[in-house]
Amino acid sequence: MVGHWKLSHWIRCWVLQFLVAGAPPPQCDYSMVEISEECPSAYNFDWQLYHEQLYFARSMVFSGDGARGSQEAVMHLLREVTRHFWFAFECPLAVASTYFSLAQSFAFQGRLRRALAFIHMGFIFVRDKGFNECTPWPVQGWDMLLAGRNLVSSIRPLDDQSVMPTMPQFRLPNQRVAIVSICAYGETEPVRIIGTENHQVYAELHGYDLYQVTEKSQIKANLASQMDINDGRHKPFFWKVNVVKNILEQTPRYDWVLWIDCDALFMDPGRTIDSVIQMYSGNNTWATKLGPRSFGEDLKMQSLRDRVQPLSPPEVSLIVATDSSGINNGVWLMRNSAWSHDFLVRWWHSDILQGPGENHNCSDQSTMQHQLLYDSSMSLDDAWDAVEAPVWVPEVRVAAQEHLQSFHAATAATVASREWQDGDFIKHHPGCHYYKPPCQQLYLEAHQIFLGKLQAMR
Ligand SMILES: *[C@@H]1O[C@H](CO)[C@@H](O)[C@H](O)[C@H]1NC(C)=O
Ligand SMILES: *[C@@H]1O[C@H](CO)[C@@H](O)[C@H](O)[C@H]1NC(C)=O
Known about the structure:
Elements: E1 10-11, E2 15-16, H1 35-38, H2 47-59, H3 66-82, H4 92-108, H5 112-123, H6 126-129, H7 141-160, E3 177-182, H8 190-206, E4 209-213, H9 239-248, E5 256-260, E6 264-266, H10 273-281, H11 299-308, E7 318-323, E8 326-335, H12 338-348, H13 363-378, H14 382-386, E9 396-399, H15 401-404, E10 406-407, H16 409-414, E11 426-428, H17 437-457
Parallel strand pairs: 3-4, 3-5, 7-9, 10-11
Antiparallel strand pairs: 1-2, 5-8, 6-11, 7-8
Helix pairs in contact: 2-3, 3-4, 4-5, 5-7, 5-13, 8-17, 9-12, 12-13
The structure holds 2-acetamido-2-deoxy-beta-D-glucopyranose (2 copies).
């Protein structure tokens, strides 16, 4: 494929490799990119035709049909290619650009939550092919990243309205929390030594139980849920699902579990996990733009209010952090609820891991996000969006990165997301290769900051 170049691509999901200085980038002539070559179909699907239809649907904005007509036409295309979600991986940029087109038109109408949901879903398809800046598809990696970043920062102030103000040292008496991680690296790997020590010191300080898996053999298959890490289908990223399911089934029972990757390090010894749980699950009311009830509301308004401000909304079961590009599941909090047990089973048995979707990159993150966002993002509801009611399933709360996990500088920059700053709870190093000395140095520095703060507390 002449003229087809990538500015950069994703490695282990997160780190973009920039062109090495010196060599000038090849010229971009995307008319040389043959879609039938880029996306050959094993299912007789005509991606070239889809390409024409997508441009046509987008251009309807300028014809008599207007934004609404265009949106419906693009939505129709998206339904067609994502109905069997695994199939959409056959032509990742086609789907990413369809999602991006929708995000643009919803943002244009001021429906920011819906627009962000589409950006986040679209990023699932960027992870396989990288950010293309030279592409016949109507999306540029840079534009998509900026859209994600701007939408996240527009929505944050709204979400903050339902965050319960909580002291960092808050403890709920009798609430049982377990910290769970897998550090199954070689015994002398710095990531394992530093990660396990950091988690141990933090857990001991607050009296949280800690489960550290250091060997694959410690993960027992969960027969009732048909989870078995040796099934040959689930990559190591999925082991956490099996492990957390097992721990949630234990007696005595835990109320919450904090999942933390081995390369995610506690940074603020003074903050409890309880405080984060309280902030993001203490107020069940959804943050929306629908104001308080006023006298003499019409029936339409009342029925919207009944849906958007239900008397007893479901309790929060899952607290995740998203960055500009979607969920990062290196750190999350899960309540021991019926919903959570069911969710873990659906996550493990995701039906998107087949056909062209079988080996897609970051499959643990995309299957999680697909379960939490796909159906709800596709159920358009104009009255709902007009008041910016949440699009994630109601059991999910999205936390600000500083309260759950922010990133080391390189990844923060490449995903236009939050770089760890003093005061942030956890520093995560996604995309930094644990066997590389600069990454090992970063773990050490982070852990030393944590120990220094601990010293200062005492
Ligand atoms: C996943 O990403 C890597 C690195 O960017 C790439 O080499 C690989 O082909 C990708 N996998 C798939 C299934 O596209
Ligand atoms: C709970 O969240 C709602 C919606 O954002 C907000 O209006 C309300 O003030 C919050 N309540 C408390 C106690 O923070």
